[in-house]
Design goal:
Helix content: 40-55%
Oligomer: single chain
Distance between the termini: 29 Å
Radius of gyration: 17 Å
Number of helices: 10
C-alpha cells in the first residue's frame, strides 16, 4: 500500500496485494478502493495480483480541483497501469468505475489489457438524451447535486438504502455494510463528489465500448435502483462484441457486497477461462 503521483501532482492511494496475473480494480462513486476488499482478498488467495486505487478526490487520494471527469479518471487509471509496468492486465470496474475502465480503453486501447469486467456499470450513457430516450432525466442528477450541497451526510445514508436494496422485502444487509458505505462516502471531497455526478451520468461511452476487442464480462443485478439494468449492462452487452453476461435475479446495485460469494466465483471462472 502506498501512493503514486500523477502528472498534475495528484496523489493516488493504492493497495497492491498478492502475486500472479494482474487485476486492476476501479471503484464506484462515492466510495474508495476498500469497497473491493471482498474481491481483493479472494482473488489474491487464488493466485492473482490485485491492485486498487482510490479515485482522485475520493478516499485517501488528493482532493484535486481538476480532472474530476472521465478523461481525468481514465488518465489516472493509465498512470496506475504505467507505474506498475502492467501488461496483460484484467480491468474490473463497478458503477462509475466501469465508466473509468471504458474510457481508459477508449483513450488508450487494449495494448496492456487482457480482459475487462463491467459490474453494475454506468455505460453506455445514463442521462436521457434525444438519442438515449430510455435514460434518466437530467433532473434526477440535478436533485442529487442539490442534496449533496445541502446535506451530503444524510444524502449518503439515504443512498445506501437503494444501493444495497435494503428497501426490498427480505433484504439481508447488515448495519455494518450501511455504516461502512457512509464512512467511505464521507471521505470523498464534496467538490470532487459533486463534479463526479456529471462524469458518471452525462458521459457518453458508446464510442469507448466500440473499442473493446478483448474478452469482456458484463455483470449486474436486475433490481438495480441506481443504474437501471435495461439502459446499462444490457445495452453495453449489445455494443461490445462477444460480451459475456451474468445477471443476478432480484439483486441490487451493490452486488459486490450483497452477492460477494457469487460475484467472486463468477469472476474467477471468467479470469480462468
Amino acid at each position: 500500500m502506498g501512493y503514486l503521483t500523477t502528472q498534475d501532482g495528484t496523489q493516488l492511494y493504492y493497495k497492491d496485494w498478492g502475486s500472479g496475473p494482474a487485476i486492476v480494480f476501479s471503484h464506484g462513486w462515492p466510495l474508495n478502493a476498500d469497497a473491493w476488499d471482498g474481491q481483493l482478498l479472494f482473488l489474491a488467495q487464488q493466485g492473482f495480483r490485485v491492485i486498487a486505487h482510490d479515485r482522485r478526490g475520493h478516499g485517501r487520494s488528493s482532493q484535486s480541483p481538476e480532472g474530476n471527469d472521465m478523461n481525468g479518471y481514465a488518465d489516472d487509471l493509465a498512470a496506475v497501469i504505467e507505474a506498475f509496468g502492467l501488461t496483460d492486465a484484467t480491468l474490473i470496474g463497478h458503477s462509475t468505475g466501469g465508466g473509468e475502465v471504458a474510457r481508459y480503453i477508449g483513450r488508450y486501447g487494449t495494448g496492456r489489457v487482457a480482459k475487462a469486467v463491467l459490474i453494475s456499470a454506468v455505460p453506455p450513457i445514463m442521462v436521457q438524451t434525444p438519442d438515449n430516450p430510455d435514460g434518466l432525466p437530467l433532473a434526477v442528477f440535478d436533485e442529487m447535486r442539490a442534496s449533496l450541497a445541502h446535506d451530503r451526510a444524510q444524502f449518503y445514508q439515504d443512498l445506501a438504502i437503494k444501493f444495497y436494496g435494503v428497501n426490498r422485502p427480505g433484504a439481508e444487509v447488515s448495519d455494518g455494510i450501511l455504516h461502512q458505505f457512509w464512512s467511505w462516502s464521507m471521505q470523498a471531497g464534496l467538490w470532487n463528489a459533486y463534479q463526479s455526478v456529471a462524469a458518471f451520468s452525462e458521459t457518453d461511452f458508446r464510442d469507448d465500448l466500440a473499442a473493446f476487442d478483448v474478452p469482456t464480462l458484463v455483470m449486474q443485478g436486475d433490481d438495480d435502483q441506481i443504474v437501471p439494468i435495461g439502459n446499462a449492462s444490457m445495452k453495453t452487452a449489445q455494443l461490445v462484441s462477444g460480451a459475456q453476461e451474468v445477471y443476478y435475479p432480484g439483486a441490487p446495485h451493490g452486488i459486490t457486497a450483497t452477492h460477494q460469494d457469487q460475484v467472486n466465483q463468477d469472476l474467477l471462472t471468467f479470469l480462468k477461462s
